[in-house]
Amino acid sequence: MSISTSPPKKKVSEQQIEAVVNKGGKTTVESKSESADLNSTKSIKLIMTVDEMEKIKELRDKRPARSRSRKISISVHDWVIEAVQEKIERERRKYSVQ
Protein backbone atom coordinates (compact mmCIF):
# COMPACT_ATOMS: atom_id res chain seq x y z
CA MET A 1 0.00 0.00 0.00
CA SER A 2 1.46 3.31 -1.01
CA ILE A 3 0.98 6.43 1.01
CA SER A 4 0.48 9.60 -0.95
CA THR A 5 1.18 13.01 0.39
CA SER A 6 -1.55 15.62 0.52
CA PRO A 7 -1.40 18.41 -2.03
CA PRO A 8 0.52 21.46 -0.89
CA LYS A 9 -1.67 23.90 1.02
CA LYS A 10 -2.35 27.23 -0.59
CA LYS A 11 -1.30 30.16 1.57
CA VAL A 12 -4.21 32.48 2.30
CA SER A 13 -3.46 36.03 3.28
CA GLU A 14 -5.03 37.75 6.28
CA GLN A 15 -6.70 40.18 3.88
CA GLN A 16 -8.44 37.32 2.06
CA ILE A 17 -9.62 35.86 5.37
CA GLU A 18 -10.92 39.26 6.53
CA ALA A 19 -12.72 39.75 3.20
CA VAL A 20 -14.60 36.44 3.61
CA VAL A 21 -15.46 37.15 7.24
CA ASN A 22 -16.66 40.69 6.55
CA LYS A 23 -18.60 39.71 3.45
CA GLY A 24 -21.43 38.36 5.58
CA GLY A 25 -24.17 36.27 4.17
CA LYS A 26 -27.86 35.57 3.98
CA THR A 27 -30.00 33.03 5.73
CA THR A 28 -31.19 30.11 3.66
CA VAL A 29 -34.80 31.17 4.23
CA GLU A 30 -35.81 34.78 4.03
CA SER A 31 -37.44 35.74 7.31
CA LYS A 32 -40.54 37.88 7.38
CA SER A 33 -41.52 40.38 9.99
CA GLU A 34 -43.69 38.74 12.65
CA SER A 35 -46.25 41.53 12.39
CA ALA A 36 -46.33 41.40 8.58
CA ASP A 37 -49.25 38.98 8.39
CA LEU A 38 -51.27 38.51 11.57
CA ASN A 39 -53.48 35.88 9.91
CA SER A 40 -50.63 33.53 9.03
CA THR A 41 -50.46 30.35 11.07
CA LYS A 42 -47.91 29.25 13.61
CA SER A 43 -47.49 25.71 14.89
CA ILE A 44 -46.76 24.83 18.53
CA LYS A 45 -46.15 21.58 20.35
CA LEU A 46 -48.69 20.98 23.09
CA ILE A 47 -47.81 18.62 25.92
CA MET A 48 -50.45 17.57 28.43
CA THR A 49 -51.03 14.76 30.85
CA VAL A 50 -53.00 11.66 29.94
CA ASP A 51 -55.59 12.70 32.53
CA GLU A 52 -56.05 16.12 30.88
CA MET A 53 -56.43 14.49 27.47
CA GLU A 54 -59.01 12.05 28.82
CA LYS A 55 -61.00 14.91 30.37
CA ILE A 56 -60.98 16.76 27.05
CA LYS A 57 -62.19 13.65 25.22
CA GLU A 58 -64.92 13.10 27.83
CA LEU A 59 -66.12 16.71 27.53
CA ARG A 60 -65.92 16.54 23.76
CA ASP A 61 -68.01 13.37 23.72
CA LYS A 62 -70.71 15.03 25.87
CA ARG A 63 -71.22 17.73 23.23
CA PRO A 64 -74.10 16.94 20.87
CA ALA A 65 -73.08 16.04 17.33
CA ARG A 66 -73.84 18.55 14.58
CA SER A 67 -75.36 15.84 12.44
CA ARG A 68 -76.65 12.36 13.09
CA SER A 69 -74.08 10.82 10.77
CA ARG A 70 -71.10 11.97 12.84
CA LYS A 71 -70.38 10.17 16.09
CA ILE A 72 -67.68 12.60 17.25
CA SER A 73 -68.95 16.15 17.40
CA ILE A 74 -65.57 17.89 17.37
CA SER A 75 -61.92 16.85 17.16
CA VAL A 76 -59.60 17.22 20.15
CA HIS A 77 -57.52 19.68 18.14
CA ASP A 78 -60.55 21.85 17.38
CA TRP A 79 -61.70 21.59 21.01
CA VAL A 80 -58.32 22.91 22.21
CA ILE A 81 -58.32 25.73 19.63
CA GLU A 82 -61.84 26.70 20.70
CA ALA A 83 -60.77 26.68 24.36
CA VAL A 84 -57.77 28.91 23.61
CA GLN A 85 -59.96 31.35 21.66
CA GLU A 86 -62.44 31.50 24.56
CA LYS A 87 -59.59 32.16 27.00
CA ILE A 88 -58.18 34.92 24.80
CA GLU A 89 -61.60 36.58 24.63
CA ARG A 90 -62.06 36.41 28.44
CA GLU A 91 -58.60 37.84 29.10
CA ARG A 92 -59.08 40.52 26.43
CA ARG A 93 -62.31 41.71 28.11
CA LYS A 94 -60.81 41.43 31.61
CA TYR A 95 -57.80 43.59 30.75
CA SER A 96 -59.55 45.82 28.19
CA VAL A 97 -57.25 44.86 25.36
CA GLN A 98 -58.30 45.29 21.74
Question: How is this structure best described in words?
Answer:
- This protein has 98 residues and is an all-alpha fold.
- The protein has a domain of 50 residues.
- It contains three helices and no strands.
- It is elongated and about 80 Å long.
- It starts with 13 loop residues before the first helix and ends with a helix.
- This is BRCT domain-containing protein.
- InterPro entries: BRCT_dom.
Overview features:
mainly alpha, 98 residues, 0% strand, elongated, single chain
Q: What share of the residues does DSSP label as strand, in percent?
A: under 5%
**End-to-end Cα distance:** 77 Å
Write down the secondary-structure element order: HHH
Rg, Å, rounded: 29 Å
Number of helices: 3
**Secondary-structure content class:** mainly alpha
Helix fraction?
A: 40-55%
> How many beta strands in the DSSP annotation?
0
Shape: elongated
Low-confidence stretches: none
- Could you report the average pLDDT, rounded to the nearest whole number? 84
Largest sheet composition? none
InterPro entries: BRCT_dom (IPR001357)
Protein name: BRCT domain-containing protein
Show the helix and strand layout.
Elements: H1 14-23, H2 50-62, H3 76-94
Short recap of the structure:
The protein is an all-alpha fold and 98 residues long. It has helices spanning 14-23, 50-62, 76-94.
